[in-house]
Amino acid sequence: MTELVMLVWHRFPSWLAGKEIPLDHVCLPYDKAAHREEYPLMFSTNNINFNAKTAKIVFPLQYLDLPCQRSSIELKGYIEQLPEYWFKRAEFEWGNRSVSNDCLRLIELSSDICMVSIAKQMNRSVRTLRRDLSAEQSSFMKLKAQHLRDKAIHLITETNTSIENIANILGYTEASAFSIVFKQWTGSSPRNYRQFFV
After folding, report:
1. How far apart are CA 74 and CA 174, in angstroms?
2. Looking at residue 32, what DSSP letter applies?
3. Is residue 53 classed as helix, strand or coil in its secondary structure?
4. Tell me: the pLDDT tens digits for 72-119?
5. In a 3-state reduction of DSSP, which class is residue 5?
6. Which of 11, 12, 77, 184 could form a disulfide with 35 if both were Cys (CB 3.0 to 4.6 A apart)?
7. Which helix (H) or strand (E) holds 74?
8. pTM for this prediction
């Protein structure tokens, strides 16, 4: 759960400031995990160091002086969305738009989350969408995986839906296949993850 704690320490101050705090690098005190490709997506940096002596996130000193932009009412709404909010790749800066964020938003809203359907809704060809996402160091598969991970975490921590039903909701034919993928995403099995938040 080390990465979860570090993720909170990054996402919460960023939310308070209304601006994502850019990380110079992230240090993790263990070997590269099976789900290591998720770390750049989680922390918005490709500078991930494994086997470090201590776990830490490093960012420019001036960001410690950012003023708090959030009200107590907003904080109440934020708390009500936990822990799901921690796993969302939020747009911290108001008005900040990107192809990746627009694509992810459509994936979250659409019942058909195939690339052909999403590209059509964005008035792009599949080839153009793939190129535009690549220019932002993203991909449709990464965004789809992020959406499925966020939805899985929400269902596991916020509902009593069985693991088998969650697997079906997310499109997996077997709960065992879903469990393997979920462990790659979070480092924990769905059942252990649920127990941690009970």
Report:
1. 39
2. P
3. coil
4. 777 887 787 777 666 665 544 444 457 888 888 788 877 788 999 999
5. helix
6. 184
7. helix 72-80
8. 0.53
Query: Collapsing DSSP states into helix, strand and coil, what is residue 27?
Result: strand
What would the pLDDT profile of 59-72 be if each residue is shown by its tens digit? 888 888 888 887 77
Alpha-carbon span 116 to 130, nearest angstrom: 11
In Å, what is the CA distance from 139 to each residue of 11, 93, 115?
A: 22, 22, 10
How high does pLDDT run on average in the chain?
Answer: 82
Radius of gyration of the chain (CA): 17
SS3 of 114-154: the string is: CHHHHHHHCCCCHHHHHHHHHHCCCCHHHHHHHHHHHHHHH
Task: Identify whether 67 is preceded by a cis peptide bond (ω within 30 of 0).
Answer: no
Q: How many residues does the chain have?
A: 198
Give the confidence band of 1 by pLDDT, cuts at 50, 70, 90. low
DSSP string, 142-195: HHHHHHHHHHHHHHHHH----HHHHHHHTT-SSHHHHHHHHHHHHSS-HHHHHH
| SS3 label, residue 20 | coil
Separation CA 170–CA 160 (nearest Å):
16
